[in-house]
Amino acid sequence: MDIKTASALRRLRLVSGPEAISFLLLLVCSVLKRTTEFNAVPVMGAVHGFLFVLYVILWADAWNRAKWSLGTAAFYFLMSVLPTGGFFAERRLKREAEDAVIASRARKEGVVNA
User: Fold this and answer.
1) Which residue, 87, 80, 76, is CA-closest to 49?
2) What is the domain partition of the chain in residue ranges?
3) Which residues contact 61 (CB under 8 A, 6 or more apart)?
4) How many helices (H) and strands (E) does the chain have?
5) What is the C-alpha R_g of the chain?
6) Do 25 and 46 contact (CB within 8 A), yes or no?
7) Does the CA dihedral 84-97-100-4 come out positive or negative?
8) Cβ-defined contacts of 95-101 (< 8 Å, 24+)
9) How does pLDDT run along the chain (114 residues), one tens digit per residue?
10) CA angle, corner 9, sides to 113 and 5, nearest 5?
11) Can you tell me whether residue 111 is helix, strand or coil?
């Protein structure tokens, strides 16, 4: 994995957590709007909308650079529309990055998988 691909995956990973948190906060604000006089939906809606658009842009960049299959790309996109999906995407992206580092070190040391 080259440095640009690793950077693209890292950027996607870094935005997936805040995007998931903003989604959950937006859901809480929606409930509070209907049950109390508190209405933070316009603010949280804007924050979540910004983070969602940023996630989709970074997702497209990561898909292009990492050469994901359609199934992998669909999984990461689906994680952006599920309320807690960003947390799962973040963990899986972190695992993929760690595996890529291990594979890269093994190639440098001349270790070949049997």
Assistant:
1) 80
2) 3-109
3) 8, 11, 12
4) 4, 0
5) 17
6) no
7) positive
8) 96/9, 97/6, 97/9, 97/10, 97/13, 100/1, 100/6
9) 677 888 888 899 999 999 999 999 999 999 999 999 999 999 999 999 999 999 999 999 999 998 999 999 999 999 889 888 889 999 998 888 888 778 778 878 876 654
10) 65
11) coil
Map residue 82 onto helix, strand or coil.
coil
Using alpha carbons, select from 96, 41, 34 the residue that is nearest to residue 65: 96
Q: Give the burial class of 9: count Cβ atoms within 10 A of its Cβ; 0-12 exposed, 13-18 middle, 19 or more buried.
A: buried
Instruction: Give dist(CA 41, CA 43) in Å, integer.
Output: 5
- The distance of Cα 72 from the centroid of its chain, to the nearest Å, equals 12
Report pTM.
0.82
For residue 80 the two structure tokens come to 């952006």
C-beta separation of 19 from 48 below 8 A: yes
